[in-house]
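Training component of the fellowship. As part of building independent skills, the fellow (R.M.) carried out the full modelling exercise for a liganded target. The chosen ligand was glyoxylic acid. The inputs are recorded below so that the supervisory panel can assess the work.
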Amino acid sequence: MTSRIKEDIEAIGKIGKDPRGGNSRPALSPEDIEARLYLIERMREAGLEVYVDDAANIIGVRKGRLKEPYVSTGSHVDTVMNGGIFDGVLGVVGGLETMRQLNEDRVETKFPMVLVVFTDEEGNSFMPFVGSKYFAGEISNELSDLKGKYELISFKDALERFLRRVEGKVKKIGRFPYALRNHVELHVEQGPILYQRKVQIGVVTGVVGVQRAWVEFTGRQAHAGSTPMDMRSDPMISAAKTIEKVREIAIQMDMVGTVGFVEVSPNVINVIPGKVRIGVDLRSLSKEDMKKAISSVVSYALESSSPEGVKVDVTEFFEEPVLCSPRVVEEVKRSSEEAGFSYMELPSRAVHDSQVMAKVTDVGMIFVPSRDGVSHAPEEWTEWEDCDRGQETLKRTLLSLQS
Ligand code: GLV
Ligand code: MN
Ligand code: MN
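Fellow's submitted model of the complex:
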């Protein structure tokens, strides 16, 4: 067993422990910065040249005989609130361990390799995929408009706070200037398939897209006792009906749909709320279905709000579903087989930085089992042997993608 993987995951898992359970390390929070400092030290110890770009991505370079293109791996270390210790972290630590083993085996590669720790994959701080979207060139100036959701801080100030802590340890760059050959991400499955079927490695064929909408219902704040029922403009009623509709539409359209965020103002028992904001999250492998579903949700929100005299405002976020590269898929299969691990193909039903990276390079993902399929929860667990098998598959895949 690779005790270094366990040691690193446990060490990072101690950072940002939430008294309510699990880990809460929103991107660039003081806790996330502590986890980043830990990793930067380990990356430097592994002889990587460490860069930080304008999106706060941490980029560790292992030189090859050629200057570029790079064989790339990486994931994220920010967590959802009350999340687990493996989501994202395994991919980063697995990449780091791979670099260490290559050093120990004195492997000199033709193409250089890079380990990227992407910023705000979860989007709990600023926006989902801030780091990968910037790395892939999809956003630039947008960074200066980003504002913290849990902490009232601008992205620029959060970046500076991080940079102050790493001065002298990293090189600051604008954007990573080199081409990639491919990007491979190791991750826990976060669903039940591998665990239930007792399969060791998941060869990911594609990643679902995500369609989100922040729907804000504005009514009239008033007294819960003295306002007659027929003289109310209550946004909670329209929000509640819409939440129920999300589930109905998701089931009808064979996708998943969740409302995991509700904000009520002023959130007081004897006050009819003035505003209710909900976060709708729809996932599918079909972009068309997601577009249809969100438009049905929004139409329903408008319809059910108008008799209440409630106003509706919608802000959308969308990320495309992608297919993994057939070449990478083949190499992951071959690597699992050569290592003697059982494997199966499956799509990812969680979203990942790799789907953003697919816009600039060939991507693939390697999954390992999640106990009972649980993730985004304090109970998230993956056996250490499975972490090791994932890392071994990652190493073999990255090496095979050298040729
Ligand atoms: C990220 O983990 C997501 O699937 O939301
Ligand atoms: Mn996650
Ligand atoms: Mn993740």
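The panel noted the following from the submitted structure. The longest strand covers residues 209-218. The pocket of manganese (II) ion (ligand 2) is lined by residues 80, 87, 122, 376 (CB under 6 Å).
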